[in-house]
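Schema walkthrough. Field components (list of strings):
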Amino acid sequence: MWSSVFSLVIFLVAAVLPVAVEASHSWNNFHWGRTSNPFSLKLGDNLSSTWDPYLGTTSSDWSQSSVLDTLIVAGGTTGRRCRPTSGRVEVCNAKYGNNGWLGLAQIWVSGDHIVQGVAKVNDTYFSTAKYNTPGWKNLVMCQEVAHTFGLDHQDEIFDNPNLVSCMDYTSNPLGPPSNEHPNQHDYDMLETIYAHLDSFTTVQSGTQKLPLGLAIAAAARNQDFENRSEWGRTIRDNGHVAVFERDFGGGQKLFTFVIWAEGE
Ligand SMILES: [Zn+2]
Ligand SMILES: [Zn+2]
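Field assembly_structure (string):
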């Protein structure tokens, strides 16, 4: 009797501790190649004006990192097409349709290195009363852009207390406490991922070309990659957030991070 009460107490204590906060949330250590820190990563703005302030907040939030500066630049594609640009990140919004996803981030990797990324927000859902809020827009923009740095989620349980990080998925972005911005653990994780330096860069600066062999083949590039059928195998999917891997061969892969729209 007493031992089972004791076990129950241990179980309850374990259940309320935010154990995930101590865990690593790098994405397999994938990272941008660069020869010095902090490195400057361009975020192409393919957003309509209602989204611009959210990208502004996301860019300044993440640029507080000691290893990373993000720079908002003119978009290299359109919101609807959202094709990647080598060496940088394209950020897009559009009504992508009732495809199930609220937000999506994709990184193309060559070996261990990220060579391009996109972050998309789906206005089909963001135009509904449920998601058309500053809380949801901040959470999703902050999280999707951060996946393109090589960050994964801190926590994927949607109804537990917020960890005060946009890398913590939640049904309640505003909390309190709010999950609209990064926290110290996210900045620490970036410092760990980017602690080493590379002998080459995969970040675009001017007309510099990617090192030979790192450029993504056209077949792995010139599609929308907007639908589940193009994302390859499921790495994990809890019905709220999911990660997929498409292997193009030759060390080239596409990873897709998804936030599903609830109830869709
Ligand atoms: Zn490296
Ligand atoms: Zn995510």
